[in-house]
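We were asked to recover a plausible sequence for a given structure. The inputs and outputs are reproduced exactly as logged, with field labels preserved.

PROBLEM: sequence recovery
POSITIONS: 193
GIVEN STRUCTURE:
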């Protein structure tokens, strides 16, 4: 593992603990010697995670679509900033340049990004780990929903287990290092769940 992609809110959230978690994540990625890949903005938790990695001496790659360059003000201190022409290009480049994917607390954009890479893994398009940093139980309800989807026969146990969950960045990076991708395909019969 050489690089870690962090998806997170373009807002700060209502509790200081989210900013603290974003800072801890950026610092942990850099301290472990990994390159941080993220959305390239200087707003919300996105700006914090980048600042933390940079302050810890890490390399940070940002990928921002032209259409969002003004709304999500581009971070001007990054090791590399790629301004691309569409959201699709942004996500494709982030996926290519990253060896693992983390979702910090965030909104709909964060969900869309982590779900896309997780489902690509589910289809066998890549073998990289995906996980949630569960700061203050932020993702408890979502994780419960995954369990419900599994129990109701819409998600294979092996696929549910692809999603890594930890309360600290260090624990999540440890899970990523130990991760073994499933070898079976997504498509299953009800009797196999
Ligand atoms: P949010 O979690 O909604 O604050 O958004 C976090 C990041 O996700 C921001 O960089 C948004 O530009 C990005 N984003 C928002 N909507 C989408 C989408 N449909 N696909 C991919 N990224 C998105």
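RECOVERED SEQUENCE:
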């Amino acid at each position: 593992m050489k690089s870690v992609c962090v998806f997170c809110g373009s807002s700060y959230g209502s509790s200081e603990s989210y900013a603290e978690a974003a800072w801890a994540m950026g610092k942990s990625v850099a301290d472990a010697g990994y390159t941080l890949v993220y959305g390239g903005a200087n707003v919300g938790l996105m700006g914090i995670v980048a600042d933390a990695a940079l302050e810890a001496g890490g390399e940070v790659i940002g990928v921002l679509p032209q259409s969002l360059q003004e709304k999500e003000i581009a971070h001007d201190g990054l090791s590399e900033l790629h301004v691309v022409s569409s959201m699709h290009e942004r996500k494709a480049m982030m996926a290519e340049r990253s060896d693992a994917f983390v979702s910090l607390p965030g909104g709909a954009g964060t969900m869309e990004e982590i779900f896309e890479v997780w489902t690509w893994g589910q289809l066998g398009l890549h073998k990289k780990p995906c996980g949630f940093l569960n700061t203050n139980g932020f993702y408890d309800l979502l994780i419960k929903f995954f369990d419900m989807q599994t129990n109701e026969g819409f998600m294979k146990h092996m696929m549910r287990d692809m999603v890594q969950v930890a309360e600290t960045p260090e624990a999540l990076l440890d899970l990523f290092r130990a991760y073994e991708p499933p070898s079976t395909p997504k498509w299953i019969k009800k009797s196999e769940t």
